[in-house]
Design goal:
Number of domains: 1
Distance between the termini: 43 Å
Largest sheet: none
Shape: elongated
Mean pLDDT: 90
Radius of gyration: 25 Å
CATH architecture: Orthogonal Bundle
CATH class: Mainly Alpha
Strand content: under 5%
Bound molecules: heme C
Low-confidence stretches: none
Order of helices and strands: HHHHHHHHH
Helix content: 55-70%
CATH topology: Multiheme cytochrome fold
């Protein structure tokens, strides 16, 4: 049987919560509110930083450590002449708020669930799935005009004279809005996946 007193207690607690404070000054309450707000902002930043390293993205999940990270480490985006490194998050996660937090929350949930289900836990499964996964990334990048690439590569700062004839010709298509980076530059941090011979059996990840 339900406790006959409980609705009364809940109502009491609610009325306490919403009644004006007799004990604390407005200033003290404001200060406490600011303190809680600041702690939340700092906490979010710390969490974003901790879950945004190559170490975290590359090793928290076994399948990333086994198949994805080694390829990134072989690419020009990991080690190069000038020592500018593109980390996983530089290419894969939005750079602006609140899009960054929404993306991280969604990817955190779907990727963790998929990892637990072992969607890409073996080389065979990875080979089977990577065409579909790559297409998810390409779609995102096409949709946002390769925004993440352009946080580092700014076409306004291109010295086309210093690029090859082929690059110059093709890059004019970018400024004309006819193509975006990812339309031409796939496989810049990973092995370019092959077009599957048979239709892909999707494991319904997202
Ligand atoms: C964190 C900065 C950063 C981001 C983000 C980034 N790049 Fe790069 N990229 C570089 C640097 C630095 C080099 C030069 C490497 C070298 O010296 O060879 C480079 C080289 C390249 C090259 C020439 C070498 C190669 O691998 O073919 C291409 C093409 C390229 N990037 C395309 C892209 C595309 C497409 C994206 C988005 C998916 C992207 N980059 C995102 C910094 C970045
Ligand atoms: C229409 C196709 C096309 C588009 C769109 C395009 N590129 Fe390129 N890009 C090329 C070609 C072709 C080359 C020359 C071949 C090569 O060096 O691999 C090239 C070369 C490059 C290089 C190497 C330049 C050098 O001299 O070493 C970088 C870096 C690069 N592109 C980045 C980008 C970025 C970033 C974008 C989007 C802002 C972009 N490209 C859009 C076709 C394209
Ligand atoms: C320079 C940009 C760039 C960096 C850095 C980068 N990626 Fe990617 N990633 C891409 C692109 C573009 C694709 C789509 C497939 C392709 O073109 O290679 C992709 C695809 C993927 C895929 C789908 C499977 C596949 O291989 O296509 C996974 C998983 C992934 N990346 C994880 C990571 C992780 C983890 C890191 C860091 C260890 C990382 N990426 C670093 C640009 C990048």
């Amino acid at each position: 049987m339900a406790d006959p007193e409980s609705p009364g207690r809940i109502r009491q607690a609610l009325s306490w919560l919403f009644s004006p404070s007799a004990r604390w000054s407005i200033f003290a309450l404001l200060l406490a509110g600011l303190g809680v707000g600041a702690a939340m902002v700092v906490g979010t930043q710390v969490a974003v930083a901790m879950t945004g390293t190559d170490e975290f993205c590359g090793t928290a999940c076994h399948s990333h450590a086994k198949f994805v990270m080694p390829e990134h480490q072989q690419s020009a985006h990991y080690a190069n002449r000038t020592g500018v490194r593109a980390m996983c998050v530089d290419c894969h996660v939005p750079h602006t708020y609140p899009a960054k937090l929404i993306y991280k929350a969604r990817a955190g949930i779907t990727d963790a669930l998929a990892e637990m289900r072992g969607v890409i836990s073996s080389q065979e499964k990875f080979d089977q799935e990577r065409w579909r996964l790559a297409n998810l990334v390409w779609d995102e990048m096409r949709d946002n005009n390769s925004a993440n690439c352009r946080t580092c590569h700014d076409p306004a700062a291109w010295d086309l004279k210093k690029q090859s004839e082929d690059a110059t010709k093709q890059h004019k298509k970018f400024s004309a809005g006819k193509a975006t980076c990812i339309d031409c530059h796939t496989g810049v941090a990973h092995k370019e996946p092959e077009v599957p011979k048979a239709p892909v059996k999707a494991a319904a990840l997202r």
